[in-house]
């Protein structure tokens, strides 16, 4: 991964030097392991703090919304798709962006790693070949197969290479296909349940939610100036942690992402309680694919299905 | 929307979508009747939609 880091620094430095961009958005080390944070480099001196490894899981498209500057942005497959969504939704102009594409082999699941050991993880190392991950802390050191500790959305990812970019930092990585992975297996499992079982499943899933809205804040799709949960006139949804209010929040938040969600996993990664928020958005992704043949963020030419009308849209549910 | 609501455990008989013009009063009556009947039939399950915690502020 050091070659990725070096290349990102080199390109960023060049872009800033030539004045092609006003800033470059990338990742830098966070204050604790596995929590890399976004960094805006505005001069050449900053770029040496950029890093790249398996902890760059949050979605940088979140940080370009409505910006006026020329921006260089480091983008893995899902970030690039979310940039495409932003462009379609007029949240940024394509010519404002210089996309530094990063072919991605998946991000590490920080919840899984944290749960796998008893102590606090003090350092995390990946080998150069990208095969193993070693975590260590006070009195322990564990090595895992990298593929086994990826975020679930990454192991099911179909678009590892950026769909739009101005420059790639490395050769493209091989894509997975429907034959390799069954990306909707978890959704199908819930679909087969009875209504009461489904209810109980989501009750259990959401029982830990503390309504911190980290999932919303980490999501590049959630850019409304005032979110529906923060409005008080009218108040659309109760603000308590009553299971009913929690469920309504999660349902509505997910639904706002219908046909736009790229399954980048930023919501799950940011959740302090480790809730699999994707259980809802993944269902919407499946519905969009089945009903409209649509996958979000693959093109900047087409409007998403929920803001277009076609005479052949499915309508069996309207009686 | 219907799909996700039912995916999250809302009983299928509870959710109805219908297109009724302002001129179609008879259709409105028919649909409202049908919706009510189906919801009443599911009455035993309505407890799960109620809030359990006391209301604050």
Description of the structure:
The complex is a heterodimer of chains A (319) and B (57). In chain A, helix 2 links the parallel strand 3 (71-75) and strand 4 (97-101). The radius of gyration of chain A is 20 Å and the shape is globular. In chain A, helix 8 packs across helix 10 (278-292). Chain A contains 10 helices and 8 strands. In chain A, the strands form 2 sheets. A 5-stranded mixed sheet of chain A has the order 2-1-3-4-8. A 3-stranded antiparallel sheet of chain A has the order 5-6-7, with no helix packed on it. By secondary structure, chain A is of the alpha/beta class. In chain B, 40% of the residues lie in helices and 0% in strands. Chain B has helices at 2-7, 25-41. The N and C termini of chain B lie far apart (31 Å).
* Continuous helix count of chain A: 10
- Counting copies of identical and different chains, the oligomeric state is heterodimer
Shape, principal axes of CA atoms of chain A: globular
How many β-strand runs of chain B? 0
> On the 0-100 scale, what is the average pLDDT of chain A?
92
The total tally of domains of chain B equals 1
What summary fits the major beta sheet of chain A?
5 strands, mixed
Which sequence of SSEs, written as H and E, runs from N to C of chain B?
HH
N→C terminal distance of chain B = 31 Å
| Order of strands in the sheet with most strands of chain A | 2-1-3-4-8
Give me the strand/helix succession of chain A: HEEEHEHEEEHEHHHHHH
Distance between the termini of chain A: 55 Å
Low-confidence stretches of chain B: none
Helix-strand category of chain B: mainly alpha
Sheet with the most strands of chain B?
none
- What is the overall silhouette of chain B? elongated
Which runs of chain A of at least 5 residues are low in confidence (pLDDT < 50)? Answer: none
